[in-house]
Amino acid sequence: MTTAPAPPAALAVHSSGRFDRPVDALAASVARIRRYTRGGRRVVLITGTEASHRSGKDMHQVLDANGWEWAHLSGERGAGECWGTWSTSALQLVESYTHRLTEMTWTRSAEYGGGEAPPVTALVLQFEVVGRPYRRTVTVIVVHWPLANTERRQEIWKDCALGLRRLEDQIRARDPHTALDVVGDLNRNYRQDADRRLIDHYIAAPLRLVQAWAGSTPVRGGTHGPRSLLDGAVLDRRLLGWSTPWCWLLPDDDSSDHRPFAHTLRWPLLPRRARRRIRHHLKETT
């Protein structure tokens, strides 16, 4: 039986959770997002954060569903902070792993329990696009960086950016053509000129990516309160397509103090030489 190819365009949603909200609320939020559509496009990828304290049983309740797979990789301290779930009709997992971006730590605020926070660790998910062999793989890097409200945290934020560059080098050594999507809570407000420039300088420009909010900044509302756009995606421009808006806010719910956002998701073609190699391989194997 021939597998139907992934739709030519789809949606990705990021929904930063909150560590102290009930499991049932997070499960209801994920289920609602999976049903979300816009302009005929459906959600095929959801990512989230603040799950380091959630058990495997909790995350199974939140993320397990027919037609969907998921990853929440706990192990070393801090590794379970991020999670992802994807539709198997559109995306086929190549590999999943966690990667520590910095060894530096900081002291949490009392609201978040105090004590030393673990080093920032990213979740890496690489996908092939179902039924579309001439498209690039998509590598999603889910992150939660510290709020840079002290000198120490500012240093850690910048060190995370350096760690992200090292991670990109490793990814491209194995797959030079993959399309990157760095998504999550960067804890820098896109509406603020200085924060926007920092993201460009430390992440977007070195990795040859763009900020998803660029050209699609909502007139009102934010991922944190009425104005702050602290959550976002920095990604390969070709993943977004060319029709605006390519990034927007979703309705809020009680699973978090963050508001989810969506961005369009297209499948960039491989370079011509790589497509020729795949075409030749497919002819030999059929």
Automatic annotation (TrEMBL):
SUPFAM superfamilies: DNase I-like. It comes from the Bacteria. Gene3D superfamilies: Endonuclease/exonuclease/phosphatase. This is Endonuclease/exonuclease/phosphatase domain-containing protein. It comes from Nocardioides hankookensis. The lineage of its organism: Bacteria, Bacillati, Actinomycetota, Actinomycetes, Propionibacteriales.
